[in-house]
Design goal:
This protein is of the alpha+beta class. Helix content is 46%, strand content 22%. The chain is flat, with a radius of gyration of 21 Å.
Length: 274
């Protein structure tokens, strides 16, 4: 049974991967219109497609990242919108900041809890519905994350289009900001290799082997080369092994050690629009 591939399906894959229209159509055809499988198919053919990311939210909206006064906790809140007209509106930004402040003040842990918080005489859920009615666009809380640690640093990038939280083992405000900016710029998948799911590593290995075979190299050679490709993937996508953006001669791990030998990143959250 053949599956119909629509123009919108092809365009969605093009937007996600940057691959050509015909390549995207073929990928969807070969994978029975399975979007994630189509991405893997493109990569196996040698296409320069970025690894799947889970940090991207709606194309428009406002992202707020902030911490408690003692920097022991932080939140990232994303409220989506349909157009940049709303996203760039000062009143809408203030609206999102008000909800973020309520999340901090009420020690909110989840989006479900946040929707029930009362600000003035209204719950956050009612405030969002009222705002939707007044501006005529679909808006909503699309992401809420909380991080707790001995010290949490926050960073907002690009006119509230990205928010980052970094959990550190001890107080280090300047280093925290530097690492948050690193995460914003370099978009790591995890702190270190132990934080990357085994299935992700297995997926990268499989894709690497197929890429090498497609180049005409024998299977036994493909296995060996794939090890190097996976190691590079881990280096590029784990925070502590990335070159430090302010000084590429050292890694992020080296930078943290230069500040304090006991200073480490335990987790991070990166939420971006677009």
């Amino acid at each position: 049974m053949s599956v119909t591939i629509s123009a919108s399906d092809v365009n969605k894959l093009r937007q996600a991967t940057g691959a050509g229209m015909m390549d995207c159509r073929k990928a969807l055809t070969e994978t029975n219109n399975d979007f994630e499988a189509a991405i893997d198919w493109l990569r196996k053919q040698g296409q320069k497609v970025a690894a799947k990311r889970s940090d991207r939210e709606a194309k428009e909206g406002v992202v707020i990242a902030q911490t408690t006064a003692d920097n022991k906790s932080g939140i990232v809140l994303c409220i989506s919108a349909e157009t940049d007209f709303v996203s760039n509106n000062a009143e809408f930004v203030t609206f999102v900041k008000t909800i973020a402040n309520a999340a901090i003040e009420n020690n909110i842990q989840t989006a479900e809890e946040l929707n029930k918080v009362t600000i003035g005489s209204e719950t956050v859920a009612d405030m969002v519905n009222d705002k939707l009615a007044s501006i005529g666009e679909k808006i909503g809380i699309t992401r809420f994350e909380r991080v707790n640690a001995p010290f949490v640093a926050s960073y907002i990038h690009g006119s509230n289009r990205m928010g980052v939280l970094v959990a550190l083992t001890k107080e280090a405000a300047e280093a925290g900001k530097d690492v948050a900016m690193q995460i914003a710029a370099m978009n790591p998948l995890a702190v270190d290799e132990s934080s990357i799911a085994p299935e992700t590593i297995a997926r990268e290995r499989e894709i690497a082997i197929e890429q090498i075979k497609a180049e005409g190299k024998p299977a036994e050679m493909a296995e060996k080369i794939a090890v190097g490709k996976v190691n590079k993937f881990l280096k590029d996508n784990t925070l502590i092994h990335q070159p430090f953006v302010k000084d590429a001669s050292k890694t992020v791990a080296d930078y943290l050690k230069s500040i304090d030998v006991d200073l480490k990143v335990t987790s991070f959250v990166r939420v971006a629009l677009g």
